[in-house]
Structures are given as C-alpha cells and as structure tokens.
Amino acid sequence: MAEQSRPSRRCRPQLPEMEGQPHTALCARIDPSQIPYEYDKAGDVTIGAIVTQFACLLDEMSFTEDPKLMILNELYGKPKLYQHVLSLVFAVKEINDNHEILPNVSLGFQIYDSYINERMTYQNTLKLLSNQKGVVPNFQCDQQRNLISVIGGLYSEMSLQMATLLGIYKIPQIAYCVLAPVMNVKIHLPSFYRMIPNEEHQYRGIVHLLLHFQWTWVGLITADDENGEKFVQTLMSKLSQNGICTAFSEKTPAIARAIETLTSLESLRAKAISILSSDTKVYVVNASHHTTICLTWLIYLHSIFEGDTKFSIGKVWLMTAQWNFAADALHRAYDIQTFDGTLSFAIHSKEVLGFTQFLQSLHPHSSKGDGFLRIFWEQAFNCVFSDFYEIEGRTDACTGQEKLESLPGTLFEMNMLHAFLRSISFNNSAGDTVLFNENGELAAGYDIINWVTFPNQSFSKVKIGWMDPQAPQGKEFAINEEGVTWHHMFNQALPLAVCNDNCHPGYHRKTKEGQPFCCYDCVKCADGKISDLKDMDDCFKCPEDQFSDKNQDQCLPKRINFLSFSETLGMTLLFTSLSFSLVTVLVLAIFIKNKNTPIVKANNRDLTYSLLVSLLLCFLCSLLFIGQPQTVVCYLRQTSFGVVFSVAVSCVLAKTITVVLAFMATKPGSRMRKWVGKRLATSIVLSCSMIQASICAVWLCTAPPFPDLDMHSLTEEIIAECNEGSLTMFYCVLGYMGILATVSFTVAFLARKLPDSFNEAKFITFSMLVFCSVWFSFVPSYLSTKGKSVVAVEIFSILSSSAGLLVFIFSPKCYIIILRP
Q: Which of 43, 517, 714, 755 has the most beta carbons within 10 angstroms of its beta carbon?
C-alpha cells in the first residue's frame, strides 16, 4: 500500500525526565480504521501477520464522535521488535527466490500491528479476513486475498484474540507466544500452532538451574494478571517439591496506567523498595512484557527517589523466555549494567544465513509498502524526517544514511531469532529441524543465555547450556558453569542464595519452628553417625565394620581387637604363665626327688602330684586365651580350663578331707580309720572332676563356643572373641567350680587348728581364700569389660588363683625340704 501521511501534531506527556533524554512521544488522535502502520506485498498466496510494534495507551470514548485512539509510539514503541517484521519479509524473499520450494507460485504477505490492544487486534485480524479495501468478512470479492495462514501474536492474550476469529475459518495460526493462551490448546484451538516449546520444559529448566547452583532461597516477580498467577502457582509447587523455598512473591503493578495517570508514583516507590531492597540474591522473573517494563521502571524510580543503585549489587536475575532484553527505547538512558550477568531461557536458535546482509540493504526511502520502517528509523536513531513532520524546535533530522549495524544490541540486533513455518516438519535455513508435537507446539528445548553488559550500553549473550526434553534421560539439562560471567560485584564468585549458611559435613539440618523448610539450624551428628555432604537432612550410620571419625564426616575401618602375643600385655601374660609353669615343674621335681621324706608322704603323695600337674595345666591353659580366636581354640578355652581347675580344686578338697579324717582316725575306737587311704582321695578327685567334665560335654554337644566378631561393643574396634554359645552352661561351669572351692575352703577353715605335725589345713585355707576372692571378683569384672580386657581379666584370674594354690600350699613344704630337711 502507499505510504500514508502522518499527523503533524506533537505532544509531550508529563513524565519524569530520564537522564540525558526526555520522554518525548508522538501522540495522535486518529480514526482506528486509518492507522497507517502496516506492510504488504502482493502474491499468489498471502501470509498474514499481526505483529507488536506500537502500543495504544489510551482509548478515548466520548460518545459524541467516532472512537479515537491516543498512540504513543516512542515511549511505547519497540524498535527491536521491528525485527519480527523484517524476519517475515526476509523469509518470504528467500522462498520466492528459491523456485524449488513453491514453483510457479509467488508468496505475499500482509502485516498489521496489534498495538497491544484488544480492539485493534480484533479489527486487524478481520482486515486480514476481508478484502484490501475494508472490513467485510464472509464475502468473496475481486480483490480478496488468498490467505493461507496467519502469524501472531507475541503475547498469549493477543494470540487468543486472533485465534477466536481465525479458528472459525480454520486458517492455520502460527504463534510465538511463550505461554499457551488456553489449557489443552489442540482441543480448543485445533488450527493453532506455536513456535515455542511447552512451558513445562521451562519450569523444569528453572528448577534444574536453581538446583545446579544450589540456590534454595529465591524471590519471584511476576505480573499482576492471570498468567502471573498461573506462573507463581505452578513454579512454587515445583520449587517446594525440590527443596527450594520462595523468599517472597511480588506482583508488578499495572505500570502503564500508573504512568498515564501520574497518581501512583508513591505506590510505585513503595513497591520498588519492597522488591529491590530484599536481601535475596536470586530473582526469578516471569519476564512478560508488562513485568519487564514495570521492573525497569521500578529500578529507575528507585534510583531517582532513593538516590543510589546499591540494590542492584549482588543480584542475579533469572528471566523466562519471554524476555527480550532491552527491547524498549527506555534503554537509551537506563544503565543496562543492572542486568549484568543475567541468566535467561531462550528458544533454541541459530544464525540464519543472509539475514544480516538483508538488513544492511535496508534504506528508509527505498522500501515500498512498509508503514513501519520510517517510524522505526526515527526511534532507533532518535531523529525525525523533515519531509514527514512539522518539527517544533527539532534539529536532529534523519539523513537516511544511518547504519543499522551501528545501533547497540539493546535497540536492534542483526541476527534472526525466529525462522518461520513451511510445513509440519522441515529443516529451516539455519539447519534446524522444525517439528510440531501432538499439541501443536514446537518439539524443541530452551537455550540458557548469560547476558554480559558493558558501560557503553553494549552487551553480549553467551549460550551456557540448554534444556532439551528430547535428550536421553539424565542428559536433558546441561550447563557450562565455567562459562558464566556473573555481575561484576560478585567478582566471579558463585552467588549464594540460601536462607542461612550451609550445614557442613558432620552436621545435619533441623528445621526452625515457624520458618520455611529452607531455614534451618545445623546440628552435630550423633555418635556413630556421619554426614558427608552439605545440607543433609539427617545423618546416617556407618557400616558395622566402620566407625565415624571425630569430625563425623567420614567412616573409618574398625581395627580388629584381640589379645595378641606381640603386644605388651600379651607378652607379659605369656611370660607370667610360662614362669609359673616352670616354677610348678621345679616344685614337682623337688617333690619327686624327695618322695620318701615324711613331708612328701604326708597327706597322700599321689594327690600332691595330681595337684601339681593340674596346676601346671592351669598355667598352660591361659595360653589358649592369647591370640586371635579359632574354632578349636574356642572349643578348648573354657572347657579345658573348667575341667583342669576342677581337678585342682578336687585335689585340694581331697587333701582337706584327708586331714580331717586322719585326725579323727587317731582317736581311740574311731571307725574313721577304714576311710583313711588313697581310695577315698581318688574317689573324691574322680567324682568331682567327672561332674565338671559332664557339664562341659553337654555344653559342647548343645551350644559350643565359636569364633565371633562383635561389631557394636566398641566404637572404633571389632572384637574378635569366642562367643560362649550358651552363657548358661558357661556360668554352670563357673558355678560348679565355685561350689567346690567354697566346700574346700569351709572344710579347710574348720580343720585349720587341728593338732597335727603336717597339718596342711591352714595353708589350704589361705590358698582357697585367695582362690575364692579371685573368682568372686572375676564375675563383675567379666561383665563390665569388653574386648581384650575380658580375656586379660580371665587370664589374670587363672594365673592368680593357680599361683595362690601353688604358693600357699607348696612354699612351706619346699622351705622345709630345701632348708630344713
């Protein structure tokens, strides 16, 4: 269409002046049907498009004349979004130049603006469905367009407004809104296709990103509308399921209405303080158009009213894929370094070959039918065309020689982000396969972009990762942490976003009462438990063969605990046992050598030999308790000790009874003489010993001792021991031996003062007193000690009790034999 004349009236809204640039804007009250911002190209078939370039800020409804619109096309115009227009123009050019794609068919287009206004979106959609002269839908006219599809819109609300009309005619609509306009799109809007992956993938990507950097204390910022509410509800649920807490959830106000009326600046100031003064380090922003422009204004107002920009220090902005960084002319004067280090999601894209060269060929005087270009040119280069306006004091005229490549990226980029539909599945000119899923959504993932800004208002964006739902499980999310450039105030250190400091290994988290679950105290792990990672919910026990170190952050192997021959205690007990054995052998040799002396003959010489041999075996039995337990050793330890000791005590008992009977037999007329002799003594020894031997036999046949490892009694050691098998039988052996000792002690005590030249009763009394004292103290010691100490106590009891018998019974006799023969 021919370029239409533009109004000459200028007006200036009463807004706060930005540093270095006033908020001038072109305002026009015009008939909505005569709005000039469109672009068309004739063709055999036509693609329609509803783009977003300007905004209708105010509807004037006086009811005295036809409705008019007030249009502010500099403050609310978006030079950067003009690329959406050029992308379609370039795509159509590429298709028409390649005769293999649509042979003998030319492709045309008709582009209108939505003005971010419901009435204008509906009106221009109807214009696409009508002829080129007016809005007359449902009629076939001579100049009717052969419309095959429509592209749009940028926002979900706009897309739904278009789909309401286009769906009636089943005309395919290709939208690029990040959020779906309705639930179950394919059911309610069967002709609706979206060049955007499902937003569910973006939610998962946000969670993955926060978990990767261990950010568990984040703030949410969203618009105060239905989409914002849906975003908060959906994301907060996923965050809490993954252990991430929301420090706050703020809704941005209706900034356009506040700016228009200029009555809400104080409330905006309060909102800016509420959002930007938080100590939260990471902000997740639902970066819709309304949210980002409001957030930018809040930052700007905060810097004006509060007089500083310290609120931006140490902030990490995490933007959703709706974000089109610095898409507004507002960024001419705004310091974009506030957003330095920002992370955002973006639709996966590659550079389209030839697009940059196409942009370099653009000229404001050469484009035919483009109602957007000259307006874009004025906004981008901050100038006016003298042949297009009545200028009021403006000297900054456009020459037309300005170069697009000289514009900062905040205003215009030379690379395409979108490549458009040719079929349901195809390879675009960037080399990517474009495929729609069953819901009419692009089957693709999201790139993760790191935005690095510079003081000269330029920026670079670096792809640092991706969220690819088509990748194998476990490889859907990837990020190059080393490639991230954080806000310069972080000095390239990873920002922390936690309610409180991490719990180090050795501690576990304990939730603070009345606080979110991300706020917790750190509690030391209990004994025997460890935590080897940060922020563990609970400590866990070490395996049975390991124990926790003093820091309780790792498990160490337990040492094997047993009484070894090589250690000092083992060597001492070994030496003591062998020494007493040698002494016993010497005593036995002395008694054998002097067997015919009266002192040896007294009280049954054979009993003396038996007692000495049993004492020798008792001393040697202690050697079975030293060393790592084996099966045979465990069988012999307690049973051999019990039987041998019973023989020794039985000999002592027989000796005591012999003394008593010998005294009684000396009385005239006593009948005890027939009991005095070897037969009685032998019977006592054999009978008493056989009872103990029977007890041991039953023990070995029913529940014999066996080698065992005690993992729990000692914290840092595994006790290698002989499990007694049956404690009942063990205490039966000890109990029977105690009964014998008690009887022997009692008889000896009663006979200690009998008049006899060779009376052993008093010596036996002392020896049995020692014996009983040792073994009565053994039981509590045995029960209260663990590991090798138990073995040492038992060996000590064996040696001391045996030595008591040896010393107190035989030392007086050896003294007489050797020194007083």
A: 43
